[in-house]
């Protein structure tokens, strides 16, 4: 029996490297946590909340994203949110994941840093033990806040540094260039953390340039607007700086009008280490395989493209050489 490229995409093992755990909160879980914590929500029902997910741009999404996160108060809430994501990831044959979390969204509401990190970290350990999914956490700074706030967040998180492997930069991109965070990223590199940043989603290619030159990021999250600058594309390809691309997010936030216009095929053809990811799956219409399958179908990607995307996800991950070899072998077995 022959499999189509889309069926292959769904079946093979892959890594997810661009998932905001707060963006995996489904309306049902938001309501369940609100009830458990005795909170009332500004939406009368699960359906009304889901109906409110009609965004037109990054900011209109972020407004509702922060409202949803307000139900997270206790360690068990963070654990349950991450565990729900791991079950979905496992179902999509995700075998490794590097998860973003936004501590400032929680500490600003009075939730202790320890609660956030320990709740998420215990879910990561459980995923390894019970699902065989390896997982790591990446702490993201909210770029609409100040660099001083990012420094304070880093300080508060350092007692728990064994629980996260890197730092990133997310939230409202335009008007908040990567260079705003040069000093705190320099400090994070000194401390031995991996560094990544969102750039070139809504912001211009110059932001991608700043991320790799000023922040010295090892990956670019999104990066789709790199295609507007051929010299930048050539450099990203030459240096094998991966892009964690999120097709359904780009569609939902109107970065592209139609998935058939998505730049994924052009990124691959340019030799870039592009990967498929879900970004904020509860809000953007799908988890890993929904992103992968719909992209393959919309762009008529080949079997080789599919395998390249999965290989890229392992190449771009921050796993040990041993774990990377294991992951690549899993892929080779699945393809054979
Ligand atoms: Zn993102």
UniProtKB/TrEMBL annotation:
Binding positions (substrate): 280
Name of the top EC class for this enzyme: hydrolase
Cofactor note: Binds 1 zinc ion per subunit.
GO molecular function, one term: hydrolase activity
UniProt catalytic activity: adenine + H2O + H(+) = hypoxanthine + NH4(+)
Enzyme Commission number: 3.5.4.2
Keywords per UniProt: Hydrolase, Metal-binding, Nucleotide metabolism, Zinc
All copies of domain Adenosine deaminase, residue ranges: 13-333
Pfam families in alphabetical order: A_deaminase (PF00962)
Site description Important for catalytic activity, residues in chain: 222
InterPro entries noted in UniProt: A_deaminase_dom (IPR001365), ADE (IPR028892), Ado/ade_deaminase (IPR006330), Metal_Hydrolase (IPR032466)
Binding positions (Zn(2+)): 18, 20, 198, 279
Catalytic machinery residues: 201 (proton donor)
Co-factor requirement: Zn(2+)
Family: Belongs to the metallo-dependent hydrolases superfamily. Adenosine and AMP deaminases family. Adenine deaminase type 2 subfamily.
Protein's job: Catalyzes the hydrolytic deamination of adenine to hypoxanthine. Plays an important role in the purine salvage pathway and in nitrogen catabolism.
PANTHER family hit by this protein: ADENINE DEAMINASE (PTHR43114)
Name of the featured protein: Adenine deaminase
């Amino acid at each position: 029996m022959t499999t189509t490229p889309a069926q292959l995409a769904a079946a093979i093992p892959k890594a997810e490297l661009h998932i905001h755990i707060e963006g995996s909160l489904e309306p049902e879980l938001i309501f369940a946590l609100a009830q458990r914590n005795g909170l009332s929500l500004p939406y009368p029902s699960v359906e009304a909340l889901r109906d409110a997910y009609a965004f037109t741009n990054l900011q209109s999404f972020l407004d509702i994203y922060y409202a949803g996160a307000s139900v997270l108060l206790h360690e068990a809430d963070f654990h349950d949110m991450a565990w729900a994501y791991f079950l979905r990831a496992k179902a999509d044959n995700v075998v490794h994941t590097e998860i973003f979390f936004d501590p400032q969204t929680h500490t600003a509401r009075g939730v202790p840093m320890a609660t956030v990190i320990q709740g998420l970290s215990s879910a990561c350990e459980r995923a390894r033990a019970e699902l065989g999914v390896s997982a790591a956490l990446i702490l993201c700074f909210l770029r609409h806040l100040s660099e001083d706030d990012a420094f304070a967040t880093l300080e508060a998180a350092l007692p728990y540094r064994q629980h996260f492997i890197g730092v990133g930069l997310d939230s409202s991109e335009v008007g908040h260039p990567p260079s705003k965070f040069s000093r705190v990223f320099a400090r994070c590199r000194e401390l031995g953390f991996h560094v990544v940043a969102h750039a070139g989603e809504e912001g211009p290619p110059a932001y991608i340039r700043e991320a790799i030159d000023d922040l010295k990021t090892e990956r670019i999250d999104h990066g789709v607007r790199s295609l507007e600058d051929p010299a930048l594309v050539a450099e990203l390809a030459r240096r094998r700086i991966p892009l964690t691309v999120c097709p359904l997010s780009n569609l939902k936030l109107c970065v592209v009008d139609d998935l058939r216009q998505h730049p994924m095929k052009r990124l691959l053809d340019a030799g870039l280490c592009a990967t498929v990811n879900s970004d904020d799956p509860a809000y953007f219409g799908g988890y890993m395989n929904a992103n992968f399958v719909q992209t393959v179908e919309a762009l008529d990607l080949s079997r080789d493209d599919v395998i390249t995307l999965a290989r890229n996800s392992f190449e771009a991950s921050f796993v040990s050489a041993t774990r990377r070899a294991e992951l690549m072998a899993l892929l080779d077995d699945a393809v054979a």
